[in-house]
Design brief:
Layout (H helix, E strand, L loop, with lengths): L10 H12 L5 E3 L1 H9 L4 H10 L1 E8 L5 E9 L2 E12 L2 E10 L1
Parallel strand pairs: 1-5
Antiparallel strand pairs: 2-3, 3-4, 4-5
Helix pairs in contact: 1-3
């Protein structure tokens, strides 16, 4: 059996798919570690969502060992410079934004 090649994304395509997925907040999932860091660093969920929707890639998109794409997105919102490490998980019913951690 032939294994398919992984889907290739550059930063621009990653950002486009991320913004489409982040437009629907039900497709944004914050991992427990990210929630802990948000509380610790006083970053709100609205700031994270705004970062995903309007931010720029600060760490290039790369393929994870699990076959998903990961990047760090940065944006200045609410007076703070917020960076979000996010995985774009591609499912049959659409893409999901999995927030791994949040940095200021």
């Amino acid at each position: 059996m032939i294994t398919p090649l992984p889907f290739i994304l550059n930063d621009a395509n990653f950002l486009k798919r991320l913004r489409l997925a982040a437009a629907d907040t039900s497709r944004i999932v914050a991992m427990p570690h990210a929630v802990k860091r948000m509380k610790q660093r006083r970053v709100t969920l609205n700031q994270v969502v705004e970062c995903l929707r309007k931010g720029m890639v600060s760490e290039p998109a790369h393929l994870t060992p699990y076959g998903d794409w990961k990047a760090t997105i940065s944006h200045r919102c609410g007076g703070d410079s917020v960076s979000v490490a996010v995985v774009l998980e591609m499912k049959d019913n659409g893409d999901y934004c999995i927030v791994i951690t949040v940095m200021t």
